[in-house]
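Input chain follows. Return structure tokens only.
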Amino acid sequence: MPVSTRSKRVLLYSHDSFGLGHVSRCRTIANAIVEADPAVSVLIVSGSPIIGSYEFRSGIDFVRIPGVVKQIDTGEYDSANLRVGVEHTLEMRKRIIRDTADIYRPDLFIVDKEPLGLRDVMDDPAMLAVEWERKHVVPALSDLYDEIWIYGLPQINKPMAGIEMPPSVRHKSVYTGYLRREVPLHTDTPHEMEEIEGPFILVTPGGGGDGVDLVDWVLAAYETDPHIPYGAVIVFGPFMSATAREAFKERAAKFRNIRTLTFTNNLGALMQRAAGVVAMGGYNTFCEILSFDKKAIIVPRTRPRLEQFIRTRAARNLGLLEMLNAEYGRNPNAMATALRQLTQQGLPSEVVVPGLLDGIGNVLRLVNKQLVHPHRGPAPLDAIEPIGQPAEPDDRAAQSARFRT
């Protein structure tokens, strides 16, 4: 069908190596695009094993590719489930993405996260500069993409600060603001919300794969201090080990005011009702805390990246939330004190940060601009080099995006 007469098509690549944040961000963007224009179709490419657990609006579908997982200690990638080398997994991913794009023929290709669709914080600039040099990210940003969208604000962080960039890259970069989240319309409300009496604190380590220390610290606080005024609902996350979950359930069962669950696709409903939130500092959770205007204690991880710490420190300095730094130890009394003081914090909405949650509206304007006046480059399909040595996962996303942006 001629491009001028068929409906517009968006292909959205979701980085999927760890946790829930990437697929949640892509889902938010995709739902907003088709809600704003029902004539647009969005196809998501993702390796997330739980992408099918989320609610999508009509006009959205997804292609599941073999997953990869980042090792938390080293930052290196491995196959998530297949008993094959990561090189074979990456080769399958690249071929599926390339064939999907060749058949689907999108008018716009959005790649999330690097090297396009940068979130607000990537890593410590010195570490990021070395990584990007190894992955040849700067040439990709310069040569492969028409625009670079940063889903944040410079008041929180400038993700490319400290890295030498050509003027053309900075010129085509735009800060959108953070992506406001809404409670899903047609998902079940977790029954744990009805079982607990009175106000409660929501404890969420996101995907949970690296959340054992956070949950342990919170439970230790309740075990140490019987005077914490509010109970808790602890959502372990789908990637926390079964052994850790069962041990935590046994400890939580000793308290009449603590409930636990493994996963919910409607975390927003829990957060909306919660008196406060204790969480790690991932992008998705940060957006939800701002969107539902919740008092929050953030315990950011510092390995393998400083992303969460950098974001949380900046937000705390602006007065949006409080931070506990686990690097100084996990004293149960320190967490108990923070939990007692949580309700005395100010709300994020009491801090005026212009454009803080304007991300969705700005992304929609950027999408519409591209669909109305599409670019037809920068490289045609037949100009892509033959498949050679396996690259890093994010490099492969860049290579696959050369069809069309």
